[in-house]
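Can anyone check this?
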Amino acid sequence: MNLDKMMSMQEDNYYIVNLETNKLNVFTTKSFYLSLSPEQKKILSRQCLWSKNQDCWISKAKAGNTGFLKRQLQGLGFEDRGTVGERLAFADQVNQSQEKAGQRAERAEKGAEKAKERSDSLYKNATDMARAIPMGQPILVGHHSEHRDRKYRERIHNTMGRSVKEQEKAGYYEEKAANAKWEASGAKFKNPRYLANRIKETLASIRRIERALKGKLYVYSPEREISEKEREFYNERLRQEQGKLDFHIDKMKEINPEYELKKSASKSEKKNKGLK
C-alpha cells in the first residue's frame, strides 16, 4: 500500500479505548479498508467484530488484552486517540451484561420462532408435493416421464431436507435463548461455589497487583522502583479488582449473612512461619 496514501488518511483511521464497554473501538474509512491487502484485512476480521450501530470495528478481547492488536494497527498507520467514556463500576458492568443477555435471549427466541415457521411451511410444501404421487408408484424406468419424475421426487427430498435444517436451526436458537436467559437472571451469583471461586481468583489477582506496585515480578523477587505511569496503571487495576471483590462478597452475604472473608496467608508468610 502507498505510504503517502496511508499518511494522508491517518486522521480518519484511529483506535480508541471505550472505558464503558472495556473494548477497543477501531475506526477506518471504507476506501482505506479496501486499499488494505487480504492479510492486512485479517488483522481486523480475526480480532474484531464489525458494529453497524457504532460504525466501527470492536475488539473481541477486552481492552487490556489488545496490546498485540494495537501494535499491528500502529504498523498500518492507525492513530491512538486514548480513551472515551467513563469506566463502569463492576456492579454496573454486571447489570449491563445481564441487560444485553436479555436482549440476546429475545433475539434468539424470535429467531427460533421464525425458523419453526419456515420449517413447518417447508414440511407442508413437501407433503403436498408428495401427495401428487400415487401411493407405491415407482419411477417408470425408460418411460418418457422418468426424468421429470426423478426431478420432482428430488425436489420433494430437498424441500424436506430444508425443513429439517430449519428445525435444527430452531433448536440452536432455543438453546441460545435458554443460555442467554440464564445469564440475564444472574443465577450464577446465587451459587456459593461460583462466588467462592471468583473471590479466590480476585484475591490472587489483588496480591499480584500489590506485588507489581512494589516492582516485584514474583513473590520472592526483590523490590524495585516503578514509574509513575506504571503506578497509575496498577492502582487503577487494583481499584477494579477491589470493586469486583466487594461485589462478590456482597452477593455471598446475600446467601449467607454470616459470611466473613478469610484471607489465606501468602507464600512468603507461610515460608517465614515455617522458619520460626
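Reply from J.R.: I decoded it. The chain has three domains: 3-87, 98-185, 188-266.
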